[in-house]
Amino acid sequence: xxxxxxxxxxxxxxxxxxxxxxxxxxxxxxxxxxxxxxxxxxxxxxxxxxxxxxxxxxxxxxxxxxxxxxxxxxxxxxxxxxxxxxxxxxxxxxxxxxxxxxxxxxxxxxxxxxxxxxxxxxxxxxxxxxxxxxxxxxxxxxxxxxxxxxxxxxxxxxxxxxxxxxxxxxxxxxxxxxxxxxxxxxxxxxxxxxxxxxxxxxxxxxxxxxxxxxxxxxxxxxxxxxxxxxxxxxxxxxxxxx
Length: 242
Description:
Number of domains: 1
Low-confidence stretches: 1-13
Radius of gyration: 19 Å
Number of helices: 7
Structural class: mainly alpha
Order of helices and strands: HHHHHHH
Strand content: under 5%
Distance between the termini: 44 Å
Shape: globular
Oligomer: single chain
Largest sheet: none
């Protein structure tokens, strides 16, 4: 999500161009790519449970991103963010909840990929971190209906997710090392930096451009996770032709 207060009377023309034209266009391209990969994976998984998990993740990500990005695109191309804070606020709440569900699917993905047995204490810890994030994230103190988020609650809902992603990444790295799975190793490497940019405001910035760059990095990392599954499904379907 991108939330930054801009002074309409003093912001540069480049900033106006980026926010009113390039940003909505970029969001639309981003959503189309997610939906395309998700539909392709879902239609061609051939009952492979790992590929089915990737497909579910892709479609969940598409829903979560649309909940916030569509209201934001509407706001940018109409009367502006300040006049649509109620719509954006509900989008942010839905986005936060669905994206948390998206990350919870990493547990099932890793178990299916590496045939892992259920480890109750670890599972409880991981799901507990995500539940804590959702509970904290729906508090009104998060300031979802304001232009800028509350820094304290932004930290409280993001840090548990970072801890969760670090733990999942370590598990996946250990399993990938034993199974020599390059795709899952790459996924694990992506998870840690993703945690720090999943909400671009988490690391404070001084300009709209810096925030936009972090949002682009965030989008590329999420797309790369889906592309790992997309490539696996594509390769499997190419091999099945021979």
